[in-house]
Write a structure and sequence with these properties.
495 residues, Aspartate Aminotransferase, domain 1, Molybdopterin biosynthesis moea protein, domain 2, four-stranded antiparallel β-sheet, 17 helices, 15% strand, globular
Length: 495
């Protein structure tokens, strides 16, 4: 490690990528390299849309600006500063979103045939990684809150049982938190994994603020996890598609870099990298104060929404020390079924009738994503809209589905099923067959069906109902989700 890196490691006021880009811009270098828009001159419409300040720093890798694939100067400094800010041994700038970070994390830990213990309510990127590397999932089916219809965290007892039944598993993966703000006992799971010579990986797509706020659930690095994927562009304020991959001291930094370079672009976006650099600096210097304010706004929102009646904005009162070991108080999740409306219906009404765009709506809940840019006046607008929706649109909830999570029946590994001979069938005629592709509502991107899982009557009913209510369905080859690819030959294996 260079002396300059060591010198600047703890100086969180620095933003080396941003500073290097500013110096480069001031030199007025004549471009005879890519990108072809040549600092915006070749595409005036793009420049008018994004602004000259933006397109002028959309540049290619070069010696003064370092190279994301093999960083040795300013990008390396930025990664060291990020590692220091997040309490990690190593940090990697990711420009392919947290999907890329999650996949790199899983590919680092697993190879073909390895078992990995994980909850089934993972983001599709986790299962995508299993398709790529050929690892075999050992699912810990989370408990379900039957009132809210949401899956919860992994119980320590469940993880211990899975480890005992699969002693050769190489890793345990944990959501920290889930989309709804539910946290498992991460310290306990890390301890169990390490006692059995397994890695502990954390999908922290929704947990960036855990590293900088007070009185929040424990972060992965603080809990001793080996790797964590952190979606900086969510609660951290960087540009969309920018994330960090964090690693602990027992992870080989060079090997992780090689894994990342298998799939990540060789043309790293300096817009995304500089946004990570600046956002890391902002959180390191001001994060504690900022997230304390966000927490107050979230508590205010929950109080106001619950006073409307009919809605339930749930929070830390759910904590039971087990399947809900902790709860992210910044999450604003609201149960809507008691007013006779599915979450996706409220989601659509808020956007179409009130010009309010929330994060997502599912069968029974909505999620309004709160972060560093939110203000009380926007919360008041949301509360008013929800009150009016209840007054105008409330109906009898009889006959509405309540369950979000259906335990899977896994009969083939994701990789085997994805690449196996397949045939397309009308989706409502596939009961009893084995799926070879994904079906999910997006967001949140948690598969209803994944490759290798048996298609059941309950799953088909859920898909039909979700489509009927207007959920955004994604995954299959058929864009209309009228047909589904299934295995041409059913395997007798079970997982």
């Amino acid at each position: 490690m260079s002396q300059s890196i060591l010198k600047n490691k703890s100086d969180q006021t620095k933003a080396p990528i941003y500073e290097a880009l500013e110096q480069f811009r001031n030199r007025r270098v004549v471009p005879f390299d890519v990108p072809g828009h040549k600092r915006g001159r070749g595409n005036p419409e793009l420049t008018a849309f994004l602004g000259e300040q933006c397109v002028s720093i959309d540049v290619n890798s070069m010696k003064p600006l370092d190279n994301l694939c093999h960083p040795i100067s300013v990008i390396r400094e930025a990664e060291e500063l990020a590692a220091d800010a997040f309490g990690a041994a190593h940090a990697f700038l990711m420009v392919g979103g947290t999907t890329s970070a999650v996949q790199s994390m899983v590919l680092t830990a697993c190879k073909r045939g390895d078992e990995i213990i994980l909850p089934r309510n993972v983001h599709r990127s986790v299962i995508n990684a299993l398709v790529l590397c050929g690892a075999v999932p050992v699912y810990v089916n989370p408990e379900v809150d039957h009132r809210l219809g949401i899956s919860l965290g992994m119980r320590l007892e469940q993880v211990e049982r899975a480890i005992k039944e699969h002693p050769n598993a190489v890793a345990v993966l944990v959501n920290n938190p889930t989309y709804y703000g539910i946290c498992s006992d991460l310290r306990g799971i890390v301890k169990l994994a390490h006692e059995h010579n397994m890695l502990c990986l954390a999908d922290e797509a929704h947990g960036t603020h855990f590293y900088f706020g007070k009185d929040l659930p424990v972060s992965a690095m603080e809990a001793g996890a080996d790797m964590a994927s952190v979606s900086m562009h969510k609660s951290g304020g960087s540009l969309t598609q920018s994330s960090f991959l964090l690693a602990g001291p027992n992870i080989n930094e060079g090997y992780v870099r090689q894994i990342i370079n298998l799939t990540q672009t060789t043309s790293g976006s300096y817009l995304l990298m500089s946004s990570l650099d600046i956002s890391r600096r902002n959180l390191a210097l001001r994060g504690e104060k900022v997230f304390e304010q966000v927490r107050k706004i979230a508590e205010y929102a929950r109080t106001e929404i619950n006073s409307i009646g009919g809605y339930y904005a749930f929070g830390q009162e759910l904590i039971n020390g087990d399947s809900i070991y902790d709860f992210d108080p910044i999450k604003l999740s609201v149960h809507t079924l008691d007013i006779g409306l599915a979450g996706i219906e409220v989601y659509d009404m808020l956007r179409d009738d009130y010009d309010i765009q929330i994060e997502f709506g599912d069968i029974g809940n909505i999620l309004a994503y709160l972060s560093i840019g939110d203000r009380t006046q926007e919360i008041e607008r949301l509360v008013s809209a929800l009150a009016e929706i209840r007054r105008c649109c409330q109906r009898d909830k009889t006959g509405m589905l309540t369950q979000e999570y259906i335990p899977p029946q896994v009969v083939a590994s994701p990789q085997e099923a994805f690449y196996a001979p397949k045939e397309s069938r009308p989706i409502m005629e596939t009961e009893g067959m084995v799926c070879s592709e994904f079906v999910m509502c997006y967001p949140p991107g948690i598969p209803i069906l994944a490759p290798g899982e048996k298609i059941t009557k309950d799953i088909l009913e859920y898909i039909r109902y979700a489509k009927e209510k207007g959920c955004s369905m994604t995954g299959p080859e058929d864009p209309e989700i009228e047909h589904l690819n299934v295995l041409a030959e059913v395997t007798n294996k079970t997982y």
